[in-house]
Amino acid sequence: MRLWRAFLATATVLASGAPAAMAQSSVTPMPARATRFADKPAIAFGTAWYPEQWPESRWDADLAWMKEAGFNTVRIAEFAWSTMEPREGEFHFEWLDRAIAAARRHGIMVVLGTPTAAPPAWLTQKYPDVLRVDEDGTRATHGGRRQFSFASQRYRDFARRIATKMAQRYGNNPDIVGWQIDNEIGPPSFGKEAISRWHAFLKERYGSIDNLNQRWATEYWSQHYNDFDQIPLHATGQQNPALLLDFKHFTTATWTDYVMNQASAIRAHADPRQFITTNTMFWNGGFDHFKLHRGLDLAAWDNYIQDADPDWVANGADHDLVRGYKQRNFWLMETQAGRVDWVPVNRALKPGQVREMGWQAIAHGADAILYWELRPARNGQETYYGTVLGQDGTPAPIFDEIAKLGSEIRKASDALADTNPVYRMAMLFSYDSRWAIDLQRLHKDFDPIDEFTDFYRPFRNGSQGVAVLSPSADLSAYPLVVAPALNVMTQEEADHLSAYVRAGGNLVLGPRSGMKDDADALWPERQPGPLQPLLGARVEQFYALDEPVQLAGDFGEGEASIWAEWLKPQSKDVRIRARYADPGGWLDGKPAIVSRKVGKGSITYIGAWLEPAAMRDVAQQLMDDAGVRPMIPNVPEGVEIGERSGAGKHILIAINHGDSPKPVAIPANALPVAGEVANDMLRGHGVAVFRVPAGN
Ligand code: GAL
């Protein structure tokens, strides 16, 4: 039996200023063990809460409102270092004990954040060497957050100590479901310690300085180094892009051991049923997220819509990417309760969109949705942020919508338990490729994230399930794998992709693929480098486009813009699927898309960044070829279908992201679980969740 759920169903509490429904008391004792995995609710639903910012006399009222909203989870303690350790070595956890106990009285489980994103003043004043140094040499100061250096051993020791103290105290507390390390790690440091770690990192990576010189081609512009200690630490500027790409490898390694320093401290004391994660930011390019997550239990991320006008397909890609980090369901550790406060015009999401975003996250594999935040602090940098309660501690207008989602999630909990998103194909995302292109775009508009999203859009719409994976992931479950702009390709990755094709898989490469190795050096062969023999064709030349070129082929006709490559078949069995029409230009009549069958598998190279209509038609053809079919065909524009399955269940989630009602052809025997469809119409921003009997 799910003990937490039994507990949640019965626990209520008396609290002053609390919602009326909560004014009766009956507290069920908790099981004396951590909740990890075995006993937690199928979907965690909750909020960030900062009890240290409020008088203790208000905690119960806040928690009662959380309960009223349907919350079963609260994240606390991140940023509370100066409350936990107000002076060096002086620890105060009694308030946190009481906050956790208060949450428990309300049937709310707790995620504990380690507070290391916000070091206290005593620390940074006594030990200024822990402060982050910008690339221009400016040292950070106190008063904001993330002012620490990720390379500082002293900072890591302090961080480990506070994490250890917390784990010793709460590692076996049954109310704690998991740990979040730090908060949105990211900004690197360029101080002395970072420089010596950089040199050690390069030495470890290249073994000898001769090897580095050779891989970086340092004869170019007289860059030759005699010793690792001579190599400058840079993230930007007119540096060798090989150095700049290795800077990203360095930040990945440094952030990974920064996080693992705390994770190992927690693991030493915590019940293994408590998960350990860190909360990341969508397309944050500061480090390779696949690598960073290797040592963590699950991925968690913070989803904010900058201009309150969600591009829902792109947002789905964000979720899919995060799920790909561990290839398991993730936590949405923060999402907005209305508006953000950091763009030029911070308008609110429309009515219905907060609920819709919640269901979209679940459809893409979120097993948790936590809002940021419950109520605004009375002062500080973020008083204007959208919150669940006002500063007066009573519901903000968004409260009812959140509570509605909460009650739907509760209703759908049994259906969703132990289910995972259904994927019908995969796409590959490579941080190295993204960075390498960003370092030398050649066309200012060749944004690798935009290009990835332009590929993702028709494949997601057409298949209704795209796993986003790293190029080294096991691909055997997917009939179709699409790698847009896999610019950096190692020999191992090429071998892995070849093996996938030879085993019957269908691989599609986008423009700029197979151009560089992982030191950012050009492969000696033209694109797609080590996959050229498999493709039986190569890129004769690539062109940045200042105006679109036409192309036509077996998909129909369309346009490419920004980038186009002239492909040249080298084997007779290569099929030219599209050619450019560029009268008087280099590309005129040249192949734009080629495919080759390899046993039961195939490899296709799309040499151009296609306009949406052409991309849609090409994607449809490739999905047809690979036998990729959606659950519900012919879904109208703006409607998203997501599926989860597992434990003998098949769940269908239909979301209308548009303002006006849209038809949806839900299978006749599907059983409604939550949401609404009337006469096969889904209203604007409506959601409907169904259980689909086996056999559909
Ligand atoms: C997140 C951060 C939170 C809060 C929120 C507001 O990036 O983790 O602490 O600042 O943004 O946008």
Can you offer a commentary on this structure?
- This protein is an alpha/beta fold.
- It has 18 helices and 27 strands.
- Strands 11, 12, 13, 14, 15, 16, 17, 18, 19, 20 and 21 form an 11-stranded mixed β-sheet that branches. The protein has a 9-stranded parallel β-sheet with strand order 5-4-3-2-1-9-8-7-6.
- α10 links the parallel β6 and β7 (300-303).
- The relative contact order is 0.08.
- Mean pLDDT is 93; it is low at 1-16 and 21-34.
- The chain binds beta-D-galactopyranose.
- Beta-D-galactopyranose binds at residues 183-184, 302, 304, 334, 340, 372, 382, 385.
- Pfam families: Glyco_hydro_42 (PF02449), Glyco_hydro_42M (PF08532).
- Belongs to the glycosyl hydrolase 42 family.
- It comes from Stakelama flava.
What would you say about this model in short?
The protein is an alpha/beta fold. Helices cover 30% and strands 20% of the residues.
